[in-house]
Design brief:
CATH topology of the largest domain: Rossmann fold
Helix content: 40-55%
Strand content: 5-15%
Order of helices and strands: EHHEHHEHHHEHEHHEHHEHEH
Mean pLDDT: 93
Strand order of the largest sheet: 2-1-3-4
Structural class: alpha/beta
Largest sheet: 4 strands, parallel
CATH architecture of the largest domain: 3-Layer(aba) Sandwich
Shape: globular
Radius of gyration: 18 Å
CATH class of the largest domain: Alpha Beta
Number of domains: 2
């Protein structure tokens, strides 16, 4: 096959996200491996910033814009922006344009429109865009998948991670209330602690009832929230980011194990 006939590798900008960068870099490395294995040319801009979601959710538009502007410049020349997080990808795909709707600089809104149109959650990108059917990892145990609110409702991610997990040999089981929030919700957990605590307790009970060996999800906020409650309940269920499992990188301690920092 000549070079002219070869399919060009898409240039993918990997948005690591704040929580993965600070709390779970192994998930970011796993996402990088999955994208490269899929044939992508991956860049990880060093000057990428927060997408502005925490401030946006709190109604602080000025602060959200201030932190999101460097983000716009970081990913401008990528074919796609891929995010190992449903909530952050939801912010980029569905709220970034609104964030800059009334900006004094129209260029920012133009950049936001372009970013929104090319943003994908990680497993959705692998399955829906790159056509990935098999991944590097292998896992034969019983796996429960938690659908984060933004991933499920904004990014329409449900079947994609389950299909990839099943391709590894995993026995994927659904939670009884798979579409119910775990109570994290970013700033929601801070503002409404009692309600959030009750919600995550219900989620932990749902997970425990399915007796999985492993609980996985695509959002670090949800994972840390559920892992913390499972740990306080004395559960031995391991909790991991879906990227780690799919990439076959289980070297980092499970989230919430006490040794994962």
């Amino acid at each position: 096959m000549t070079a002219l006939n070869q399919k060009k590798s898409p240039k993918v900008g990997l948005f690591v996200t704040c929580l993965i960068d600070a709390m779970r870099p192994s998930a970011g490395m796993a996402a990088l491996k999955l994208l490269e294995d899929a044939g992508c040319q991956v860049i990880v801009p060093e000057n990428q910033s927060c997408c502005g979601q925490p401030a946006w959710n709190s109604g602080d538009i000025a602060s959200a814009q201030a932190v999101a502007i460097p983000f716009l410049n970081s990913f401008e020349d990528c074919d796609y922006v891929v995010v190992p997080s449903g909530s952050c990808s939801g912010m980029l795909a569905h709220h970034l344009v609104d964030l800059f709707e009334n900006s004094n600089d129209p260029l920012y809104r133009q950049q936001a429109v372009k970013i929104a149109a090319k943003t994908y959650e990680l497993t959705s990108f692998l399955v829906d865009v790159m056509g990935v059917k098999n991944v590097a990892g292998s896992y034969q145990g019983r796996v429960a998948y938690h659908d984060s609110c933004s991933s499920l409702r904004e990014m329409k991610v449900k079947d994609q991670p389950r299909a990839l997990l099943k391709s590894m040999g995993a026995d994927v089981v659904d939670l009884e209330k798979a579409d119910t929030c775990c109570g994290f919700g970013g700033t929601f957990a801070v503002k409404y602690g009692d309600i959030s605590g009750a919600m995550v307790d219900d989620k932990a009970a749902d997970v425990t009832a399915q007796s999985p060996d492993l609980l996985v999800a695509g959002d670090m906020g949800c994972l840390m929230n559920i892992a913390g409650r499972l740990s306080r309940r004395g559960s031995s269920i391991a909790v991991r980011h879906v990227a780690e499992v799919l990439a076959g990188d289980m070297t980092a301690p499970p989230i919430g194990s006490g040794d994962d920092q």
